[in-house]
Amino acid sequence: MAREQVEEHIRSLSDDALTEYIITGTEVYEPDAITFAREEFQRRNLDPTRVRQMEAEANARLDVKAELAAEVAARPLDFDDKLLAFWHGLHGPFALHKLAVQEAAFFRQGEDRKVNEMWRAARYGFATIVLALVVALFITWLNSKPSH
Questions:
Q1: Burial class (CB within 10 angstroms; exposed 0-12, middle 13-18, buried 19+) of 120
Q2: Does pTM surpass 0.90?
């Protein structure tokens, strides 16, 4: 967003939304935007009692959002998706693009645990096919040895 758009957006925020914007801070927003938001907050000349109340409410909303994000991040990958990732792992590098697309979808939704479990299942699938190949080669080697 252009600076003018950011400033217009900040001006259009309700007092509660502006408070939450400032409390969220530079973890999410650019430092210049936070500075402008603070200036806008001071310009509104709000009642100090109301400011404390808005801060408490904003902190409570942010806590709920953080709890929800933590819950989403901790959701496990369901069995069907694990099986699908294992199946893709059996196909080795030929199926990596499908897993990468799914990884991006999980990241957009904040589902970090699902990403880890998906790649673990894919590695197990790949390890299975490598092990099967090694066993097949070993059996072939044993059968090709001349008998005495």
A1: middle
A2: no
